[in-house]
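Many introductory courses stop at the sequence. We go one step further.
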Amino acid sequence: MYSIFHIEGGLGKHVAATAVAQCIKNNHPDRHLIVVCSYPELFLSLPYVDRVYRYSMTPYFYQDYIQDQDTLIFKHEPYFTDDHIHKRLPLVENWCKLYNLKYNEEQPNLQFNVRQYQIALNKWSRERPVMLIHTNGGPLDGQPYPYSWARDMPYPLAMEIAQHFSQQYHIIQITRNQETVIPGVEVVTDQIPNMELFGLLLVSQKQLLIDSCLQHAAAALNKPSTVLWVGTSPKIFGYDIHNNIEATLPKNVKLPDSYLFDYNFHGMAHECPLTDLNIFDSEEIINSLTY
């Protein structure tokens, strides 16, 4: 007997999906849980996952798991449900509801094997305590602009926060490209293995993040962080473990190209409602990070 969990979407959504996978297993403990996804490395070390396949690399899958088998299929898309579109339920809880699962507060979970843990410590340990600032998220390819106003951190704000903590911490910035580099900090712009990227969270003492994969990973690793939100909502993508700070946006914005959702993740230029980048209270953020 099998449960097959098929996941589509980006890296952060896959991290959130680790909680859904556990919920599936908790509801159907006698079934082998098979995961089909784009980032199998996130699931390989999870004890409740029996086998993982990379999407589109599934030879003989139908004959092995579907044909004449007692198999449950979990492949529905949570983004297009009423509860998600109307921002009524967090992503994980809504995803489980979509599958008619009993949700028991399962949370994202990342497990490092011994070698991944060693690599993280060797690569990211520094003489001073590490502070991680994730300024620009999303995929390296496919976004039309280096700065996505809908979820990236305003550049002047990032520089102010980095300057404030620069004497106490070794600051590592995660960004997509060199156009948004903070002066005087260590910068990571290259694409690196995902578990190696998440390994940064194992050594960092403070995290200032945006709505991207690292805020999901921080929740999965039980690392309370400060997370900034612009065009996306912590009500559906955020976690209570974090201090979620929402931007102040103009009211009564026209959204002529919006269909089921308000703002596009990529931050299309003509949809931007901002007249300046003063949308966060820097003092509130500094106080959040001072603990």
